[in-house]
Amino acid sequence: TPWIKLEVIADNDTLQPDVVGLVEAADILIKDGFEVFPYCTEDLSVAMRLVETGCKVVMPWAAPIGSAKGIINRDALKLLRDRLPDVALVVDAGLGAPSHAAEALELGYDAGLLNTAIGKAADPVAMATAFKLGIGAGRTAYEAGLMEARDFASPSTPVIGTPFWHAVS
């Protein structure tokens, strides 16, 4: 296969990607005929540079590898989806619960890459099933069109033609 997952690690304690080296390595590998799937941070400028080099898939972390913290910078991940609508986006690290995967798919991500959350579960098969259900629910919710969050209450129950004990004006 010409597919290659690319990780260029900057720090052994945080496993944070070396984004400069990542873009350089992706460029070299793409020129050599590989389809590169880069593991990166949620930084928009880095993702855009990876796409400019020819990456058709970008794989930002939700949180550091193996942390199980879930999405720690939701706004940045949402911005990636908004600004890169035609790029396949895969959350690559930090997911610890099926609800984390559901949230990523609700943001419009195409997939989640899992390892530690399943491998360290008491019942890995059951956990894999739970993630499958979370991913399905998240994707269905995204496709159904989630309502936007509001800063204040807003009535949603229709009142015209509904018998209420008081008049609504």
Strand order of the largest sheet: 1-2-3-4-5
Helix content: 25-40%
What is the rounded Rg? 20 Å
Largest sheet: 5 strands, parallel
Assembly state (oligomeric): single chain
Anisotropy-based shape: globular
Head-to-tail CA distance between termini: 66 Å
> What series of H and E elements makes up the topology?
EHEHEHEHEHH
Structural class of the helices, strands and pairings? alpha/beta
Q: Number of helix segments?
A: 6
Poorly predicted regions: none
Would you count the extended β strands for me? 5
Strand content: 5-15%
**Average pLDDT, all residues:** 93
Provide a quick synopsis of the model.
The chain is an alpha/beta fold and 169 residues long.
Task: Provide keyphrases for this structure.
five-stranded parallel beta sheet; 169 residues; 6 helices; alpha/beta; globular
Describe this structure in words.
The chain contains six helices and five strands. The mean pLDDT is 93. The N and C termini lie far apart (66 Å). 40% of the residues lie in helices and 12% in strands. The protein is α/β, with parallel strands linked by helices and 169 residues long. It is globular, with a radius of gyration of 20 Å. The chain has helices at 19-31, 44-53, 74-83, 98-106, 116-119, 124-144, and strands at residues 3-6, 35-40, 57-60, 88-91, 111-112. Strand 1, helix 1 (19-31) and strand 2 form a beta-alpha-beta unit. A five-stranded parallel β-sheet has the order 1-2-3-4-5, covered by helices on one side. Helix 1 packs parallel to helix 2 (44-53) and helix 4 packs parallel to helix 6 (124-144).
